[in-house]
Amino acid sequence: MARAGTRSRDLLHIPRVQLAGGRAQRRSHRRSWTVTTPTSTQTSNVPSDREPLLTVEDFSLDLAPSGEFVPVLSDVDLTVRSGEVVGLVGESGSGKSTLAMSLMGLVPKKISRRRSGRIALGDIEITGAPRRALQSVRGSKIGMIFQEPMTALDPAYRVGDQVAEAIRRHTGVSRTEARKRAIENFKLVEVADAERRADAYPHELSGGLRQRVCIALAIACRPQVLIADEPTTALDVTTQAQVLDLLRRLRDELGMAVILISHDLAVIAEFCDRVMVMYAGQIVEASPIDPFFIEPEHPYSSALLQSLPENQPPLRALSVLPGSPPPLGMEVAGCRFAARCAHMVEGTCDVAPIPLTARGDRAFRCVRADELDLPGAAR
User: Is 62 within the bounds of a domain?
Assistant: First the structure.
């Protein structure tokens, strides 16, 4: 299932290696690194001359779930190109799903306030777009696979009718043609006995089949960008592998870009070209997948990798990252990870907001990165 080269789950077991001449050589170059807020925090093996499908620039968002606005996302930058897979990782509450909902234009305007930045899908502005314009974009230009298929699907309608309705809404074809295309989509996502399954209600299908129906619904109108929010969370290991293989095949056949949100670093390693790590509403590291697992640049990324069971010595307690992220709305003077960071220096890391430092195809939000030799996977 892995792509060519040293990839996928093997990254979690490889010995320590030196990249690009070793850590010492890379340190010597870091003095020339510039502190920026780039419009793209990452590049990948996907040719950089391809036009971006999705662009997020300096995006900051406040939410008011209980009446008072609190910052949820801060200074988010992201560029996604055709055919690439970008992984988005971070613990619960880091802002991953909120960012995904913002990309879809699904954050309710009554409880949200954009502080800065923009989101654009090609030449279409998502931020500030009217409701009708967003409805025409969802499904046709950008689609989303939600975390829980049972809540994403309408329990009162047959699954085939739900996919057919999405096709009719965006294409205007007849009911008969929409039904035909819906069944074709079921076959594309490998739903066995597609004609019969199309007449089933969501509760009549297994978890794996419901997830395939959700994928068929998300790709029904061949969107350019597919957001997969924890698409394998409720599935067994075998079904997880099948769903990931399916997403990879659809990416290759349809040429769509994929944003994969997951807390499972093994899934990210196996499936993604690039990874973005979120912490307390900010992107703290962005990197091509291989160097991220071998030599992370941010202490939080390193802590995540060290907590993997594969990285623990036999018969020893699992490594645990103490503490918790700052609560929503809490003002943090410096690095948002400083209170939990073993490398924090008072007067350096906790004084001013930490900007994003970018060089080449990597970016990170740490003022001590040039001094640290952080362990990665299997080190």
Answer: yes
